Amino acid sequence: ELLLNAGAETHVAPFGNLADELNITGWTPLYAAMKSRKFDVVKLLLKRGADPNAVTKLGSTPFLLASEICDLDIIEACVEAGADLDFAPSGPDADNLNITGQTALFMATLKDRVDVVKFLILKGAHVNVQNRYGVSPLLLCAESGNYELVQALVQAGANVNITPQGELAEENFLAGQNRSS
Questions:
Q1: In whole angstroms, what is the distance from residue 45 CA to residue 39 CA?
Q2: Statement to judge: residues 72 and 30 lie in one domain
Q3: How far is residue 19's CA from residue 3's CA, in Å, rounded to a whole number?
Q4: Which of 42, 95, 111, 134 is the most buried (most CB within 10 A)?
Q5: What is the pTM of this model?
Q6: Segment 63-104, tens digit of pLDDT
Q7: Residue 99 covered by a domain
Q8: 119 and 65 part of one domain
Q9: Are residues 39 and 80 in the same domain?
Q10: Residue 134 lies in a domain
Q11: Which region among 59-63, 142-146, 164-168, 169-173 has the lowest average model confidence (pLDDT)?
């Protein structure tokens, strides 16, 4: 807080070869605090104007990281600070991490967090989003058998007839067929 009171920037992020080697390119103070789960610092930085949508080199944001951690209190603070509910990482680095197209709602469904899913829906998260393989949150929940999540998504208007679309969806299906034969 002392540094912030002295005018420290909340949006400055490391860059360059060393930052690339350490895999921290684009980490803002907010992202670093989120990564180390220093939630009191996260809340302070958000109150001081830190951007929950600042994108790291690998395509993540502090808000997506909060969604992965699935702490409702921190997710609420990020949303209050203007987090983009429907941001989804893209690009080669996101592809390598297998997170392309996965929004905060996706992260919450993967963690079976009904409270977080309901909060994100209430705040306007898009329920029919599909990741790079064409998978939707509803498909994930139906496959895992989580009745409460399926119910929340359907009540929010999720398309019950949505199917995976695109080339990667077909490749993913064929790969699954090969594993099961």
A1: 10
A2: yes
A3: 22
A4: 42
A5: 0.77
A6: 999 999 999 999 999 999 999 999 987 776 666 656 677 899
A7: no
A8: no
A9: yes
A10: yes
A11: 169-173
A 10 A CB-CB count for 73 gives 11
Residue 154 φ then ψ, to 5°: -65, -45
Coil/strand/helix, residue 50? coil
For tokens 């469904």, name the residue: 109
Q: Provide the token pair at 173.
A: 């299906």
Separation of alpha carbons 83 and 81, rounded Å: 6
Reported as a single tens digit per residue, the pLDDT across 100-125 is 778 999 999 999 999 999 999 999 99
Give the CATH number, domain containing residue 7.
1.25.40.20
Domain hosting 148: range is 113-181
Residue % of the chain over a pLDDT of 70: 72
pLDDT at 49 over 70: yes
| Count of structural domains within the chain | 2
What are the tokens at 82?
């203007």
Please indicate, yes or no, whether residues 31 and 79 belong to a single structural domain of this protein.
yes
35's tokens = 């990564």
**Which DSSP string do the residues of 73-137 spell out, in sequence order?**
HHHHHHHHTT--TT----SHHHHHTT-TT--HHHHHHHTT-HHHHHHHHHTT--TT---TTS--H
Percentages (nearest 5) of helix, strand, coil residues in the chain: 50, 0, 50
Hey, what's the torsion of the CAs at 102, 104, 110, 113, to 10 degrees?
-170
User: Two tokens at 27?
Assistant: 């980490």
